[in-house]
Amino acid sequence: MPRRNVERLLRDTPVVVPPGDTRRLDLVVPGTGLHRGVPLLCDATCVTPITGAGLARPGCLTVDGGAVAAATARCRLDYAEVQASASAHLLCLGVEVFGRWGADSLETVPALARERARGLPTRVRRGTQLRLLRRWWGLLGVGTQRAVALATLRERDYDLVDWALERPPALAELPA
After folding, report:
1. CA distances to 15, 86, 108, 110 from 38, in Å
2. Disulfide engineering: 28 pairs with which of 5, 14, 62, 173, CB 3.0-4.6 Å?
3. How many distinct structural domains can be found in the chain?
4. Is the distance from CB of 52 to CB of 45 less than 8 angstroms?
């Protein structure tokens, strides 16, 4: 699978930033048909409601998904240029280690399934969407569990890994 859109520098996207900008995006997805068809600039994050010191993060005891909501807010501040740009759309794809997904994740996965099934005959469109959703949420859930397990074993520098990416299946390969 080509890696040209994984871990791309923000300055190498359609968003105008200074030439020396070293911020990176986890994934750049062009041509999906979502968000007016502009490239999706994705920052993926997996957070825990407990800090490295074993303390609860602020707001996580009283708000379900508080850690992922705080990470999304930080992401939007970190990539304010993308938020203000009409040439790309920022997706803060977050999940908490205990399975709470961020708002962008919860909106994007079903939207991608609808987009993937668009153009199919009406009789099979909804069933295809549901099979895609079942497969994709399963892959994302297992991928998150694997990433968390590997992150706990590593001492530092954990980020998007090559093995988590796989060839997308043909529609005929989806379970019934």
Report:
1. 11, 8, 14, 18
2. 5
3. 1
4. no
Within-domain flag for 129: yes
Task: Tell whether the model's pLDDT for residue 176 goes beyond 80.
Answer: no
Q: What is the DSSP letter of 120?
A: S
**Beta-sheet pairing, 89-96 with 40-47:** parallel
Residue with tokens 């501040």: 77
Q: What is the pLDDT of residues 5-30, one digit of tens each?
A: 678 888 988 899 998 999 999 888 88
The whole-model pTM stands at 0.78
Task: List pLDDT tens digits, range 54-90.
Answer: 788 887 878 888 889 999 999 999 999 998 999 999 9
Q: Is 75 exposed, middle or buried, given 0-12, 13-18 or 19+ CB atoms closer than 10 A?
A: buried
Number of H helices, E strands in the chain: 4, 4
pLDDT for 107: 96
Residue 84: which H helix or E strand, with range?
A: helix 80-84
| Cβ-contact 129, 117 below 8 angstroms | yes
* Residue 63 in tokens: 């708000």
Q: Which residue has the tokens 């099934």?
A: 117
Q: Is 77 a domain residue? A: yes
DSSP state of 95: E
Q: Rounded to whole angstroms, how far apart are CA atoms 50 and 53?
A: 8
Judge contact between 6 and 163, C-beta under 8 A. no
